[in-house]
């Protein structure tokens, strides 16, 4: 906890959101498919976490990333 400056749960959450962001950019999987692959039980849960951490919803993130890198 001291080394990461966050709880273990917070680190797990951070890693899952970063993996979600990577999958949004690198795949055409739906949010529901990504959620299942990462062990989320509800796609809404992953969307809420994503927006909380990144400040933008997952679909908006995907769209903005794809537009910037065309």
Main attributes of the structure:
single chain; 70 residues; mainly alpha; 4 helices; 70% helix
Task: Describe the protein's architecture and organization.
By secondary structure, this protein is mainly α. It is built from four helices and no strands. The longest helix is centred in the first third of the chain and has 19 residues, at 8-26. The chain has helices spanning 8-26, 31-37, 43-54, 58-68. It starts with 7 loop residues before the first helix and ends with a helix. It is globular.
The N- to C-terminal Cα distance equals 40 Å
Instruction: Summarize the main sheet.
Output: none
Structural class comes to mainly alpha
Total beta strand runs: 0
Pattern of helices and strands: HHHH
Average pLDDT for all residues: 88
By DSSP (H or I, 4+ residues per run), the number of helices equals 4
Low-confidence stretches are none
Binned, the helix content reads over 70%
The shape is globular
Taking Cα atoms only, what radius of gyration do you get, to the nearest Å? 13 Å
Portion of residues in beta strands equals under 5%
